[in-house]
C-alpha cells in the first residue's frame, strides 16, 4: 500500500468520525444527551472506529481496485424521545442531516480554499493532492449518505415526511437495512459515483 492510499484511508476515517460526531451534537442541541453521556462527542477516532466499516471495507475496496472509497464509523447513539417537544416530529431528520452537512461543509471549506488560493499562492503538489482528497472523500460521504435507502441518513430525512399511518412500512424497510445497503453499495452506487467528479471540479475549479 502506497503513502497516498494510507492518507486517503486516514482522511476517510477522520471524515466519518466528524460525520458521526455531528449527529451527536445535533441531537444534543435538540435536547438529547445520550451521546454525551456515552463519551461519543469527541473527535478521538478510537471512540468511533467500526472495525469493518472504518478499516476492513476501505482496505478491501482499495485492494480490489474499486472505483470508489467509502466507509463508516460506529453510529453515535441518540434517543429521539429526549428531544424537546417542538422537535419531536423533525428531530430525526435534523440529526440525520447533520452528518452529511458536516461533510459538505468540509468539502466546501477546503475546496473553495483550494480554488481561490491555488492560482495566487505557491502550494506544493503534495498539499494540493491531500486537500483534493479531503474534498473528494467528503463529497462522496455526503452524497452517499443522502441517498434515501436504509440505513443511510437520507432514509431518515425522507421518512420524516411520511405520515405516521405509513410508518409501519418504513420500519419494515429498516429491518432489512443491511442487505439493502450492501445491494445499493455494490450494484447501484458504482453507476452513480463516476458523476461525483463533476461536483468536485465544480467546487475546486481545477481540472
Tell me what portion of residues adopts beta-strand conformation: under 5%
Given the structure, what is the number of helices? 9
Summarize the main sheet: none
Structural Rg: 18 Å
Globally, the shape reads globular
- What distance separates the N and C termini? 26 Å
Mean pLDDT: 88
Number of strands: 0
H-E order: HHHHHHHHH
How much helicity do the residues have? 55-70%
Unreliable stretches (pLDDT < 50, length at least 5) are none
**Based on helices, strands and strand pairing, what is the structural class?**
mainly alpha
Explained architecture:
It is a single chain. By secondary structure, this protein is mainly α. 65% of the residues lie in helices and 0% in strands. The protein contains nine helices and no strands. α1 (3-29) packs across α5 and α5 crosses α9. The longest helix has 27 residues, at 3-29. 32% of the residues are buried. The model has no long low-confidence stretch (mean pLDDT 88).
Give the topology, please.
Layout: H1 3-29, H2 34-37, H3 51-63, H4 91-117, H5 125-146, H6 153-159, H7 167-175, H8 177-192, H9 196-204
What's this model, at a glance?
The protein is mostly helical.
Keywords:
207 residues, mainly alpha, 9 helices, globular
Amino acid at each position: 500500500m502506497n503513502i497516498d492510499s494510507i492518507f486517503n484511508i486516514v482522511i476517510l476515517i477522520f471524515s466519518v468520525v466528524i460525520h458521526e460526531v455531528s449527529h451527536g451534537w445535533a441531537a444534543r442541541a435538540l435536547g438529547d444527551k445520550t451521546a454525551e453521556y456515552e463519551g461519543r462527542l469527541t473527535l478521538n477516532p478510537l471512540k468511533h472506529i467500526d472495525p469493518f466499516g472504518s478499516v476492513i471495507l476501505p482496505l478491501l475496496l482499495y485492494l480490489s481496485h474499486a472505483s470508489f472509497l467509502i466507509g463508516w464509523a460506529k453510529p453515535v447513539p441518540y434517543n429521539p424521545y429526549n428531544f424537546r417537544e417542538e422537535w419531536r416530529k423533525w428531530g430525526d431528520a435534523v440529526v440525520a442531516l447533520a452528518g452529511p452537512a458536516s461533510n459538505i461543509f468540509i468539502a466546501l471549506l477546503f475546496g473553495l480554499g483550494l480554488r481561490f488560493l491555488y492560482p495566487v499562492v505557491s502550494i506544493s503538489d503534495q498539499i494540493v493532492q491531500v486537500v483534493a482528497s479531503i474534498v473528494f472523500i467528503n463529497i462522496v460521504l455526503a452524497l452517499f449518505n443522502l441517498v434515501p435507502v436504509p440505513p443511510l441518513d437520507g432514509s431518515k430525512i425522507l421518512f420524516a415526511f411520511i405520515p405516521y399511518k405509513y410508518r409501519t412500512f418504513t420500519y419494515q424497510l429498516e429491518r432489512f437495512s443491511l442487505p439493502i445497503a450492501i445491494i445499493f453499495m455494490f450494484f447501484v452506487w458504482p453507476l452513480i459515483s463516476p458523476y461525483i467528479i463533476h461536483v468536485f471540479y465544480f467546487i475546486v475549479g481545477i481540472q
